[in-house]
Amino acid sequence: MSGKYTVSYEVPYYECDVNATMKISSMIAIIIKVSEEQSDYLNRGSDFVHQFGVTWILTQYEVFLSRLPKVGETILVSTQATSYNKFFCYRNFWIETKEGEELVRVESIFALMNYTTRKISSVTEEIIAPFESEKITKIKRAPKIPALNQAESLPFRVRFYDIDSNHHVNNSVYFNWIIECLDYNFLTTYEPAYINIRFDKEVEYGNLIESQYEIISDDDRMKTLHAIKIGQTKYCEAEIDWKKR
Question: Is the pTM of this model over 0.90?
Answer without folding.
Answer: yes
